[in-house]
Structures
1.
Amino acid sequence: MSPNDVFDLLILVLLITCALAIARMKDLAAAVILFSVYSFALCLLWVHRGAPDVAMTEAAVGAGITAVLFFYTLARTGRREK
Amino acid sequence: MRNALALVVVIVLAGLMMAGVSQLPPPGSPDGAVHRHVAAHYIDGGKEAAGAPNLVTAVLLNYRALDTYGEVVVIFAALLAVLAVGLAGHSRGPQRGADELPVSPVVDLVIRLLAPFIALFALFMILEGHVLPGGGFQGGVVLGALMILLGLVLGPRRLRRMLPTPALFWTRSVALLAFALVAVAGLALAGWLFALPEQYWLRELIIVGLELAIGIGAAFALVGFYLSLEADRHR
Amino acid sequence: MVILFAIGLYVVLTKQNLVKKIIGLNIMETAVFGLIVTSGMVTGGSPPLLGQGLEPPYASPIAHALVLTGIVVALSVTALALVLIIRVKAECGSIELDELQVDLQPLEPDQ
């Protein structure tokens, strides 16, 4: 396995861990923060796959704006999931 | 029970998709079908044809400009829908004074210090988006994020005062209008939509103009989303 | 990528909380984007930027442009859905789907 493959695999493991944690998380605010982490990991993956434009968009949109919008929604609707 | 059923459905579906994905040609080979079709043509002639050495920008704003126009329309439509949903059925009286959330002085100072640099970076991304990675939408999102940050620090009411309604109206529509202008100008001058002039510098200018329009449009659409959610919070 | 899509789908199907469903939807979307970007990559290739001293082979710019458009649409969908969720909360007092179905009936006549 080349170092590139190891890097890919690490990021994929991180992504899947984050996704599973989001699925299990009862605290929605924590789930949103985990989604930001997930977006940043995805961003790394995309730089690695030769797509810096997509990576920049993902960092700005997925980790930034989406989280802000989610937080404002949570402020209105409560952060606990039943 | 329902969760178990859903799990079974998901696993079966995932198995089917896994089978489908394994039939795809292995990614990463430079001779794959993805790279032999139009992509090769774009890579060869994209810079001259579109006026943008960043080929992603070239594809977005020239070869697939109609798609990008659709994308701009989608943001605009989403903004309209958000505003309509936010306003419907509620009188928007003067907002109560509860809006100043206490922000930590550290956060306040850091955001105030960083704001000009973030704005500069956003502008750089927009204006250099046709050469370097980045582009109108990315820069616009950064600009929108900056305005949202300022809204957090200064309070949404001051942000709203800084952005009067006519300004919001025009900045939200500017991307749509610019795209329509370029499309119709191409149609009138050369006979097809999004035709670009012969001179390279003129092409570059049009691309930068479009990027700027998309950037401003995206930034203010995001501010619109934010202000709408924010207004909902104080009702 | 398929695993991520499956997790997202599972969240959308089983969670009763609407905000959680939207997060699941976002995960599904990123999984699809990942598949598209991966199909456009070249092992050892460089990003499709001319004039920066990068050597061919370049990754396919079409896949990247497609995904960019997709991200924008995903953001728009998310924003609209969140505002709708806030309205649901304001009108019905809950964003849990199983509670909504009970509460929705008595609201109908006077709305």
Note: Residues 38 and 63 of chain C are 9 Å apart (CA to CA).
2.
Amino acid sequence: MSKVYFSTWNGELINNVGKPEEEWEESAYNLPAQYDSHRESKAFIGWDGVSLFNADVDVIRLAMEYAAQYQEYSEACGRCAPGRWGGRILYDQLDKIARGEGNIADLDHLREIGKSMQLTSKCEIGKTVPNPIIDLMNHFEDEFLDCINNQKPSKHYNESVGYIAKITAPCTDACPAHVDIPAYIEGVRDLKLEDSLKATRQTMPLAHVCGRVCPHPCEDACRRTNLDAPIAIMELKRIGSDYETDHGFGFFHPMKKAKSIGKKVAVIGAGPAGLTTAYYLAADGVEVDVYEELPVLGGEVAVGVPEYRMPIDKYNQDIECVRDMGVNFITNSKINADDMRRFETEYDATMVATGTRISKKIRCDNERPEIEGYWSAIEMLDQINLWEKYGIGKRVDLTGKTLVCVGGGFTSMDVVRCAIRANAKKVYMIYRRDEKTIIGNTTYDEYHEAVEEGVEFLFHSAVDKMIDEGDVLKSLLVDKYELVPDPDGGRPQLLKIEGESYMIETDYLIPAVSQDADLSLLPPEWSIEMTSWATIKTNGKDYMTSRKGIFASGDCEYGPMTIVNAVGQAKRAASVMTRYLQTGEISLSDDEIMEDHLRKLRVYDKKEKVSGWLPGVPRAKSAVLSVDERKYNNKEVNFGFSQEEAISEAERCMRCYYIAMIAT
Amino acid sequence: MINFVINNIPVIAQKGESILQVARREGIYIPTMCYLAKTTPNASCRMCSVEAKGVDGFVLSCNTPPIEGLEVTTDSDALYKERQNIMKLYNVNHPLQCGVCDKSGECELQNKTLEFSVAEQSFAAKEQKRKKKQWGVLSYDPYLCILCEKCTAVCNEVVGAEALYIKPGGYKSAIDNDYAQCIQCGECIAVCPVGAMASSDFKYNSNAWELKKVPSACAHCSSACSLNYEVKHVGVGAHESEKIIYRVTNEHDHDSLCGAGRFGFDFENRVTAKDEKAFSNVLKAFEYAKTIRFSSMITNEEAYILQKLKEKHGYRLINDEARAYQKFIQAYSLACGNSLYSANLDLISKSDYAVTLGCSISSDNPMVRFALAQAVKRNKAYVAMMHPIEDESIRNIVSQHFKHEVGSEEGLLAMLCECFVNVEGKKEHQDFFDSLDGGYISGESSIGEEEFELLAGKKNRKKAPVLILGADLYAHPRAENIAKMAGVLDRYSDFSVLIIPSDTNTLGVSLICELDEEALSPVIAYNAFGDTVLSALGEGDLDMPALNQQEGTFTSIDKKVVPLNAALPYQGYELSDISNKLGVKCVNVIDFTSKLPHEKGYKAIAFDDLPNYYLNSGIQVRGYLLDAKEVKEEISLEEISDIKEFNGTVIYSCNPNMQFNLFTDKAEIIVDKALLKGSKQFAQAAKIKGGENVEFMLDGKLLSRKFQIDNKLKGMIAYNANFDLGQRSSLYRYQQIQLERVQ
């Protein structure tokens, strides 16, 4: 709910013109009435309408400035006839009226050009820029006519007003790393794969990884869904990185490394968050040392995600890209509290990005880690991956063994599929809820590939008790549950079905329900604030902990979450840290403030009706290894798109760029 | 296959076809400004929007595939109005200088402005300061540019140069050029729908509508690309025959040309009268001559005449370059069982895995380069270049460069056979494969066995592999065995093989002529060296018409017989005048077109019956394809011979990318000089500096060259241009030389 003077946002019409302020009707949307802690917004204007927060806004200039932003921000655009020339005419005509030199015919021109842009522009930016302008012309016609008839400038034409604009897209908004998705898809479509990769790397250095194993929340916010099916956004990402790798080019960095600013940062952990922080800090001219506990770089994605899903030679390309920016890595180096105290003097800031590497208990009876056969998912995957990917340690051989995994998320899928590849006799997955939920937690493909490979899923089940003989696991007592719908419409409740419990004989029980963070490296006297989930607390915007100069990002801050979430946090944190290193202040850039406002408002509207596109053009699907080809080895399962598939998929993208602007 | 309807006409789309492609194929008109058939759609003009039943708003036809049962309407009042509005927008501030614009008369903006009845500029915007540019052969006027992106698309996708790009900035957007990457092919000029991207040479020279198009085939390399010489009479008072070629154009929507083809057109031999004395002297020379030496810059019909003269008078026919190629193809044919190689340019552009051996991709044959670029861009093809010299300029085309020692090509091809020949082939040639010493070849060639494993691994799941062989191999000391291995690979694997003909009509000559090894004096030379010289360059004992002054045919790299038409008149004597006197009779040289040897695959089709046009779908219908003949004989492969070391100063015969021969050198726009180019490293080792003149012996002749350091080059081998040396030599392209500095 927001207090507004006037708003047409999202089809809503709130018109408090002429009403006393206490009688103002409120908007149902989370409109950015307060720009930041010390600035109020005067107006918000965007693809979907316009909101005025007070009566004094110069609507003509607002329209003109919005059209001007289209000129400023048309880097992404200016690439179709209606957008390029139409956008310029909108601006010129509005400026003419605002200067006090307009005439009535200019209004007709604006409407005519606006309509053509709406109908024929290449991307949504061109289609939507006329929307709020025409809204203003319709609802504030008097003000326009006043300027025209009296040939006078609009009311605040010559005053200085802050206009802050941001370009976004539903997918970009939904992506935690805010990747410029339409740009990298356009790069594929135009067969400019270097441009594609650079677009990704502006905010996401792990293009190989997030082109393969990202749960792609962006696809849930893809406007194409309103028409038929979402674009295969994730898979199009790897086209650029595969191109770079396949041709053995040097790394295509989107920015030039800045000159040294004479500051040093320690990053603890070389997983996605650590790598991302390091990359962008190094690009900003900061000297970065990354400390990694394991003998290998990459964190959980290296030792957790199996080779068949995320080939290490591809991930190493992402890591080398980070190194290429001038990052220094120190492996086999577990950081303790003493190190942290030392770092505080040796470095200008520290980033804690240590992830969550302790498997949580499943909370059944007799759950004692000393029982042989009780093996945490993290430890099991560490051992498998260190051997399979690096030849470190020893091979896991499960020949003749039965394995039960308790989980339901990505990690548990990795456990069971790795167990199949380690030649286990029988592999069970125990999950409390149903098939639909497990697919929702992971992906359709992931689940079906596991089923095809022979994993038996036991739904609506939970382990009640571990049964051992002399501390050797023998079997499990498993309870059956049913899902009872919540009459209030909430998540269905799980109720145990009495009398249906059963026994499974097994050699292993792998808990893979979730993980905790190991934060013993934080000196206790720092009293760093924690969340109720026992993770490091920040405000979720600038990622500084309660101790100045100590930052945290990724799973150790958020709790076990996705790679892309860690990347998004770490990218933001790097930007905050660079400013902190230079000024000693914690601040957000206008771009970041706008990013947060838009995220709150939400860019994607699943009810919007999409026009101007032919529905029913099928989503491309890439080829995968057949079950027999992949079941007992670590070959990458997904081949990625052929170029033909990639181009046709990219051509489905509607380029839903939008401009939002706030007047302060 | 998808059934749908356009304007109530039932049509069928193939997989991957857009609505616009189907419409064009079926002859249904949809207006476009930015659509270029040979690239992926830019979708910038929005003119091709159509209505689809049941769909709100317009649908873009260029990049939307149809769905089953769709009903499309390509024209309506609403569509007309929006298209008209787009044309109004295109005309915002567009300079009204058609009178002095080169594009006038063939300008898409002019045409569509007329078509959509835009009578005046109804909108204007504050104009930006824009800078005109000249990049060598291309001149760019941003005021005229409509940013359709055809030029950037063609540069990126078809040429693979990636030089042109959009400098974004909304209304300020313009095209820019990463000039170091630009290969001056002029494809951008050809595809520009307005006058923005113009030929620096053609600018302000002629009105388009005064030019007459003469369709022909490019004479500079074996691709023999389809082109139009555009000619005009020189002016009032001049003789009717005095015409000039003003420019070269082509069917740019579907086909391409390189810079030599587009700009190297003024190589005609201007002869206005018959020199009877010279003619009779030459006829006298023929009485005593024992040998005719000639180059492959010759039509099939002329080659046929020479062969008939040989048969009738016993002349020896000498063309070392074609003979090497001929022997290579013969050995290859015996091994693969087919008279012709299996690949063509189209197959290369559609391939997804390509290995090149023995050719300089960036300069030997531009269309092979273009085809590889397209394969990389469109099919994600893996391109392995096996060559001793690194080539930075095609880094984006080549996936992996296998840098090998000079001379080791035979071993490398053997290793390719080891990787890719199937079980049946291995059984057939068991002794050969048993004798293969991978360790030795790896050691001597500098390409490790693990690199071959990588190469073989990259072929997994690839569906259309090709092997491209070039001129380094034909004169290789082990050419015959190399050719046989290529034949074996063709026969016993899924590879298609392309053997690039080394000169324009090398393939034709090698099929039509029985060539001899050694010349006997006296020698009559046709565009070559000899005691009596017939020359189209105008420097010999008797003038001959150049290839833009002749009718006839070439046999192209695509194994097609393609027609040439005379763009310019020629008043002197031609080869047929000589042959008529020597008993090989014809009225016109093209009387022989239908008589070309049928046993070699030529067909009894008369010159005038050779088709030369394009279908709406873009398919080129031009000349005919040679019949490939089955070859019965079997061969046995020889063991790989020891690899000779190449030490000291080594040069590689290789031309700058626009130069091919003395005819391109004659062309005014093509300015590349014949130089010796090497890396800094080479200069240091050879103790010479950039800009110095050097001399060295090559093929028994003393050659003088200016040396230039090229920062793009690496390694110890220098490029030596040979376009200015007359007929191509049959020497292995790498030679050890002694450099002498001259003051």
Note: The CA atoms of residues 362 and 376 of chain A lie 10 Å apart.
